[in-house]
Amino acid sequence: LVKEEDTALVTDYFYYVALQLTVCRFTEEDTKTRGGKRKDVQLGYGGLQCSHCASTPSARKFFWSNVDRLANSFAEIPAHVLKCKTCPPEVTEALLALKVRHTEQMALLPRGSQKVFLRRMWRRLHDGDADAARKADTSVHLKALELETSQKVTSGT
């Protein structure tokens, strides 16, 4: 998701935050979370999740409709990581230390570099959307077929 070459575009804090994320794909299970706000998200759509709580039932996932929304709400991610119950203390401490230098480093970066980084990250994130959507669609159809078959077997028809 992030590459060494990205370090020239963002602050150490921003880069380290991005390292705490992994790519996830929108699933049927995700439609049932976050108060139904995700009704319009297509199965297989790329999102980000906190790598620390990814394996827990309450994993924090982020799905944005476009790169501008990602840019405007990226602050939600470090806010989550800093309070994530499964995030190791050394990661939290490192983030807090890097945050102190963030403003100073931002002033030294070329204008618009953070947006360039986010666009790169967006492209990497959504490269596999079409394939993932096809797999998700196939999976949903297979589940429906299995359900239909098991109902026929149970009812004897």
Give the structural class.
mainly alpha
Radius of gyration: 19 Å
- Oligomerization category of the chains in this entry: single chain
Q: Would you report the number of β strands?
A: 3
Helix content: 40-55%
Q: What low-confidence regions span 5 or more consecutive residues with pLDDT below 50?
A: none
User: Helical segment tally?
Assistant: 6
Between the first and last Cα atoms, what is the distance in angstroms? 50 Å
Major sheet description: 3 strands, antiparallel
Tell me the fraction of residues in β-strands, as a range. Answer: 5-15%
Tell me the strand order in the biggest sheet.
1-2-3
H/E series: HEEEHHHHH
Give a quick rundown of the structure.
The chain is mainly α and about 160 residues long. It has helices spanning about 10-20, 65-75, 75-85, 90-110, 115-125, 130-155; strands at about 20-25, 45-50, 60. A three-stranded antiparallel beta sheet has the order 1-2-3.
Account of the protein in words:
There is one protein chain. The protein is globular, with a radius of gyration of 19 Å. α1 runs antiparallel to α4 (89-108). The longest helix has 27 residues, at 129-155. The chain has six helices and three strands. The termini are far apart. The chain has 157 residues and is mostly helical. It has helices at 12-19, 67-73, 76-83, 89-108, 113-126, 129-155; strands at 21-25, 46-50, 61-62.
Task: Draw up the topology in text.
Layout: H1 12-19, E1 21-25, E2 46-50, E3 61-62, H2 67-73, H3 76-83, H4 89-108, H5 113-126, H6 129-155
Helix pairs in contact: 1-4
